[in-house]
């Protein structure tokens, strides 16, 4: 059992904002797997399927970004899964738009959704795929992450979302090290 969670904020107010890059990437993965988020479970939009015979749960926590870990904890407890079965996809202001980075563990790096996950699952040792959203020093951080991508960045964003979805599949199929070697080295 693998749990792949995209972090973001629920509701139309936050659709297509930079902070919802994790939701967008998990939507991309669901499309690739022909899965539909048709249920509410674990305080999340929920879909279940398989990747090469491995059971996979896709989550989009509806607890708002800063409480994302609550939903993930519910799912882990229900399936009696471990943090090593988790892959988190989320936005990262320290990466340019169009880039992704995969890591097996690490700090929250100032990301409140990741802080919540670490707090609720009691470890920072879980796979994560960071999706670049860039930053603008002229715009306050909260305004930046809750802003939408401009049209000139849409293609770079789509490139990153495609790569993030493929990387999540690669983690399940071939392991995290393989995915890191494949995607961290690319100009993606």
UniProtKB/TrEMBL annotation:
It is found in: Cytoplasm. Its EC number is 3.1.1.29. The active site is at 19 (proton acceptor). The keyword Coiled coil does not apply. One of its GO terms (molecular function) is peptidyl-tRNA hydrolase activity. The record marks 91 as: Stabilizes the basic form of H active site to accept a proton. GO terms for biological process: protein quality control for misfolded or incompletely synthesized proteins; rescue of stalled ribosome. The record marks 9 as: Discriminates between blocked and unblocked aminoacyl-tRNA. InterPro entries: Pept_tRNA_hydro, Pept_tRNA_hydro_CS, Pept_tRNA_hydro_sf. Gene3D superfamilies: Peptidyl-tRNA hydrolase. TRNA binds at residues 14, 64, 66, 112. Keywords: Cytoplasm, Hydrolase, RNA-binding, tRNA-binding. It catalyses: an N-acyl-L-alpha-aminoacyl-tRNA + H2O = an N-acyl-L-amino acid + a tRNA + H(+). It comes from the Bacteria. GO terms for cellular component: cytoplasm. PANTHER family: PEPTIDYL-TRNA HYDROLASE. Monomer. Hydrolyzes ribosome-free peptidyl-tRNAs (with 1 or more amino acids incorporated), which drop off the ribosome during protein synthesis, or as a result of ribosome stalling. This is Peptidyl-tRNA hydrolase.
């Amino acid at each position: 059992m693998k749990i792949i969670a995209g972090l973001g904020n629920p509701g139309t107010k936050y659709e297509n904002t930079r902070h919802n890059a994790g939701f967008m990437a998990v939507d991309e993965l669901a499309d690739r797997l022909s899965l539909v988020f048709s249920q509410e479970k674990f305080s999340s939009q929920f879909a279940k399927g398989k990747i090469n015979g491995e059971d996979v749960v896709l989550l989009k926590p509806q607890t708002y970004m800063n409480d994302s870990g609550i939903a993930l904890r519910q799912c882990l407890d229900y399936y009696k899964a471990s943090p090593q079965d988790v892959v988190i996809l989320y936005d990262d202001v320290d990466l340019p738009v169009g880039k992704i980075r995969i890591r097996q563990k690490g700090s929250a790096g100032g990301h409140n959704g990741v802080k919540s996950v670490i707090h609720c699952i009691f470890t920072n040792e879980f796979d994560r795929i960071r999706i670049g959203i860039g930053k603008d020093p002229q715009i306050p951080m909260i305004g930046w992450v809750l802003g939408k991508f401009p049209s000139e960045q849409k293609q770079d964003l789509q490139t990153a979302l495609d790569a993030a979805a493929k990387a999540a599949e690669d983690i399940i199929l071939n392991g995290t090290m393989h995915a890191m070697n494949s995607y961290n080295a690319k100009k993606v």
